[in-house]
Input
Amino acid sequence: MPIISLIDILAILLIFFIATTTFKQKEALVNVALPKSSEMASSSERQLRTTLAVSKDEQIYLGEQMVTLETLTQALRDLKQRQPELKLQLKVDKGVELGMVVKVWDEVRKAKIEISDIPLRILTGKKK
Output
């Protein structure tokens, strides 16, 4: 059995798998405890989004970069300038007060990111 043709086929399969593989985007290493929901199903929509996370101790992360509330607006403007098709997802720990979430949302609005630019999604933890 000629082995040369098998090597060619394996090389073509390898190129095909490398070309069609999607690589997982690195998310911030923020430990966020999402609230649980028994009535809401998780979205089947899979788009690459930049994570805006607020941890339990109210530290803010834009992607992997830690930012303060004061620098969040400028960081969002810079990111929007680099990525005009920017889509965000907001992950907030269930222990964070609503007032902090409103402050973060105000900074997003100051960065001229409209509500229509951020498809609204509620991220919930997996039901146990």
